[in-house]
Design brief:
The complex is a heterodimer of chains A (484) and B (106).
Chain A (H helix, E strand, L loop, with lengths): L7 H6 L1 H19 L4 H22 L7 E3 L4 E3 L1 H21 L9 H19 L3 H19 L6 H32 L4 H9 L5 H19 L7 H8 L2 H26 L5 H22 L5 H22 L2 H32 L10 H4 L1 H15 L5 H15 L3 H26 L12 H19 L2 H15 L3
Helix pairs in contact in A: 2-3, 2-5, 3-4, 4-5, 4-11, 4-14, 4-19, 4-20, 5-6, 5-11, 6-7, 6-11, 7-8, 7-9, 7-10, 9-11, 10-11, 10-13, 11-13, 11-14, 12-13, 12-18, 13-14, 13-17, 13-18, 14-16, 14-17, 14-19, 14-20, 16-18, 16-19, 17-18, 17-19
Chain B lengths: L3 H21 L3 H30 L4 H32 L13
The chains are: A mainly alpha (484), B mainly alpha (106).
Chain lengths: 484, 106
């Protein structure tokens, strides 16, 4: 029998994922021995993830190089590298927010499921083959379905898990039907090979458009874009709050890299089709998200609609299909990671102490916990796009990309929507900073304050010094534009 | 010899039936059955194309087989998780009818 030796490059390509797998094993093992000290497990996983992040930042930076690994299954380039970093940072913050609370049973399986979905997202960011793409999306989704319904005794949590599962399973089946046509007409599952068949004109235009619609259904679910956004408010409200934050940032980022990579590789020969589609989605997503957010009474639900509208802004960058557009979308997602995790973190802290996440529960936050109110102020100002915070820079970049691509009306819709958004964001701040009746002081555990400090620092740094980060994204966006 | 298009038409009919079932049915188990039907339609599609490409190339094509196997595995994992969540919904709610799930809305 002959053994085929696997090049060491291939192992380097999935080194972080191997590390994550080991971390899952250790976590489950420690979970048996450390039954009574759950918070220790949380710190253990956070430190393990930070170690993986350090390894990734220190040794695995691909620079401007791009190559495929595992026989074309994965594409190792700056884009996948950047998104994997976003996802791992998101996971660290989520773990920190999940520690030290008694709202749900925090256990080793919770952490193991979270890490499993991180593996799936990391692979999504790098996947360049239909089989790998489908497998990665399912590896991400299935643990997240369980996590959304993790509070087994809580009716709204299990309900949100079931809704998430049904929407996810349906859209992924539709996407898969599209994949089967791509495979059938090109005879290959590699995205680059499929792209060659499409540019050779071997796939009829009708089939191409059909496939495009079906595939965008699957990715639109992941990024919660307009006709596939129905799950988002219900799931964000019912799921454990750290998981809602994770869904709205890391899971969304993974959805966006897959969307950008898929559209740019597979449909690179005639981009006007998907540009029009993404423009329509973007307009509808912004409008629906912002207008429905105006009506909300629940903080988590409001953040869910705000997260839908932000997906719309990011889609402007994707729709432009230019290097600046992709760079803007990436920067937006990086800022959004810190901003939204801070907002959901505050919602989580308020919810664990007051029992519900109504907006009225925020009343008197400035008195009961000034530090928390300050973090909330910064994250909400960044969400509404007010300088000098990261949200302002990323919005400017996205709109600039839209103008550059000649989509002035789309940018106008975006600007109008920013004003609508300002209304409900400032309303939140008004509630938080009004002096209500004397309420007891909120308890903030060390892991929460650490996570909030990281978030606030991220928002401020990304808003004040942006040149180095944007030039850092040059490689990533160039890699997506120029294939191979 | 049955032409390729027949398989594709069968798969399309099954897929649409599954989609219809998943959208219209009220019972969670029935919705799950609809989704499974959609996934199986996809598998018929993939395997029909796989057979076609193998015959055209004159050699067994690997990608299609692997793809179909992976779809089966993922569908099984999804069904297992779905049934587990449905059971926990039943314990809380004493009902698995989707229309009764209305604690979250607005």
């Amino acid at each position: 029998m002959e053994f085929v030796s696997i090049p060491s490059n291939d192992f380097l390509a999935i080194l972080p994922e191997i590390g994550l797998l080991l971390l899952i094993g250790f976590t489950l093992l420690l979970g048996v021995f450390k039954k009574n000290d759950k918070n220790f497990l949380g710190w253990f996983v956070a430190i393990g993830l930070s170690l993986i992040l350090v390894i990734k930042l220190g040794f695995l930076n691909p620079g401007s190089e791009q190559h495929s690994a595992w026989g074309g299954m994965l594409q190792v380039d700056a884009a996948s590298y950047f998104f994997q970093i976003i996802i791992i940072i998101g996971a660290i913050l989520t773990v920190l927010f999940s520690t030290n609370q008694n709202k749900f049973e925090f256990s080793a399986d919770y952490l193991a499921l979270l890490l499993a979905s991180v593996i799936g997202m990391n692979l999504m960011a790098a996947a360049s083959d239909l089989i790998m793409l489908y497998l990665a999306i399912e590896t991400t989704s299935i643990p997240l379905y369980v996590l959304a319904g993790f509070m087994k005794k809580d009716q709204s949590s299990v309900e949100s898990g079931l809704k998430y599962l049904f929407f996810g399973a349906m859209t992924s089946a539709i996407m898969l039907y599209g994949f089967s046509f791509l495979y059938g007409f090109s005879g290959d599952t590699n995205l680059f090979k499929i792209s060659e068949t499409i540019s050779a004109g071997l796939i009829p235009m009708g089939i191409q458009i059909l496939v495009l619609l079906m595939v965008v259904a699957g990715f639109g679910f992941k990024v919660s874009a307009f006709p596939f956004h129905f799950w988002a408010p219900d799931v964000y409200q019912g799921a454990p709050t750290p998981i809602s934050g994770f869904l709205s940032t890391a899971s969304k980022s993974a959805g966006f890299i897959v969307l950008m990579r898929f559209l740019m590789t597979t449909f690179s020969s005639n981009p006007q089709n998907w540009m029009v589609l993404v423009m329509i989605l973007s307009t509808a997503t912004m409008l629906v998200g912002n207008l429905l957010a105006l009506l909300q009474k629940d903080l988590k639900r409001l953040l869910a609609y705000s997260s839908i509208s932000h997906a719309g802004y990011i889609l402007i960058g994707v729709a432009s299909g230019s290097q600046l557009g992709f760079k803007a979308a990436m920067y937006y997602l990086l800022v959004y990671l810190f901003t939204n995790l801070a907002a959901f973190g505050v919602a989580h802290i308020v919810e664990t102490q007051k029992g519900s996440s109504q907006i009225s529960d925020l009343t008197g936050l400035i008195k009961s916990s000034p530090g928390l109110a300050f973090a909330f102020l910064i994250s909400i100002l960044s969400l509404s796009g007010i300088p000098p915070f990261g949200g302002f820079v990323s919005k400017i970049l996205v709109f600039a990309a839209g103008i550059e691509a000649g989509m002035v009306w789309l940018v106008l819709v975006g600007v109008v929507n920013s004003f609508i958004g300002l209304f409900y964001y400032l309303n939140l701040l008004r509630t938080a900073f009004s002096s209500g009746e004397e309420s007891e002081k909120l308890r903030i555990s060390p892991s929460w304050s650490l996570a909030l400090i990281i978030c606030v620092l991220g928002i401020v740094v990304l808003g004040v010094v942006y040149t180095p980060w944007i030039s850092w994204l040059n490689f990533a966006s160039t890699n997506l534009i120029s294939l191979r | 010899m049955i032409p390729l298009s027949w398989y594709l038409i069968l798969a399309a009919i099954l897929f649409l039936l599954g989609l219809y079932g998943a959208m219209v049915r009220k019972n969670s188990i029935a919705i799950l059955m609809g989704v499974e039907l959609m996934l199986n339609a996809v598998n018929i599609n993939i395997l029909a194309f796989w057979h076609y490409h193998s015959q055209v190339n004159g050699a067994i094509e690997i990608n299609g087989m692997v793809f179909a196997a992976i779809v089966v595995i993922a569908a099984a994992a999804e069904a297992a998780v779905a049934l587990a969540i449905i059971i926990s919904v039943f314990r809380n709610n004493k009902s698995i009818v989707a229309a009764d799930m209305n604690t979250l809305k607005g």
